Model the fold of this input.
Amino acid sequence: MPQEPKKLWFSRVHWLVLCLIWLAPQTLWAQDPGKSVLGKHTYRSYCATCHGATGQGDGSIADMLNVKPSDLTVLAKNNNGEFPAERTRKIIDGREKVKGHGTGEMPAWGDAFQAISDDEEAVAEKIDQLVHFLESIQVE
Ligand code: HEC
Done:
């Protein structure tokens, strides 16, 4: 049968394409959980006292504040189901004012992290990890 090698060749390409399709999302995914795990550690140390362990705004010192800490699990829900990553990044950084936001109750973490590390890239990375963590705790 002269057609057989051709068929075989096709099926190999087929497999390759299938493998690539299968691998692509896995490699993309692999980066995000890593970041959000690192962000979770930062969150526990710096944010949970106000925003609560689960992010719902029920931290141990929440009652002592004039303004209630936001429920951080509904950021996507409040934004038509789309997680506002860039806006969240700016709010956490706090050095750049976000329109309609900021009562002064929430510390500016950009300054705080910069005090620990003067490396602007490291500060951005830390905030990025926090944003990834927050994205991972969004409710439907
Ligand atoms: C001292 C208490 C306190 C701590 C600690 C704190 N926050 Fe907040 N946060 C607030 C309060 C109060 C608000 C809401 C009032 C406002 O707009 O400033 C808020 C608002 C926010 C918002 C905006 C939510 C929205 O609905 O737009 C984000 C995002 C946020 N905090 C993230 C964080 C992260 C991440 C950390 C840790 C790095 C953190 N916060 C630590 C008190 C705190």
Remarks:
- Residues 46-47, 49-51, 65, 67, 69-70, 72, 75, 88, 91-92, 101-103, 105-107, 109, 130 surround heme C (CB under 6 Å).
- The chain has a mean pLDDT of 85.
- Residues 4 and 10 are 10 Å apart (CA to CA).
